[in-house]
Amino acid sequence: MKSSPLSPSNLLGQNAPAEQFEALTFVLKGITYVPHYRNRKVFVGPGYGRHNLTRYTQEQLLVKGAKPVTQMLWHRGGEGVVNDRNP
Fold first, then answer.
1. I need a labelling partner for 59 at 20 to 30 A (CA). Which of 12, 24, 44, 85 fits?
2. What tens digit of pLDDT does each residue of 34-73 get?
3. Does residue 3 belong to any structural domain of this protein?
4. Does pTM surpass 0.85?
């Protein structure tokens, strides 16, 4: 049964999909690198923050041969601090 927008299971839009925006990502050897959610100038791969702390700049990815790809992602922050102590 599909819930209506005003049903108790959808109070305050809890079940509404998050808005997505165009974002620059990079694909290198089949792996997609996305902008960090706090700082869109920092690119991270799968497992970032839990299994690895490797971060890249756009320039580093391009030098390695990554291909730029535009994808729809959730909103990314602009200038947030991203480092090993604050992944």
1. 85
2. 999 999 999 999 999 889 999 999 999 999 999 999 999 9
3. no
4. no
Q: Say how far apart CA 76 and CA 80 lie, in whole Å.
A: 10
Tally of domains in the chain: 1
SS3 12: helix
Cβ contacts of 84 within 8 Å, gap of 6 or more: 53
Residue 67 in tokens: 């291909």
Strand ranges for the chain from DSSP E: 20-28, 31-35, 43-44, 55-56, 67-74
Q: Residue 32: name the closest of 45, 20, 50, 43 by CA.
A: 45
Q: How many other CB atoms are found less than 10 A from the CB of residue 52?
A: 12
Q: Is residue 84 part of a domain?
A: no
The phi, psi pair for 9, rounded to 5°, reads -75, -5
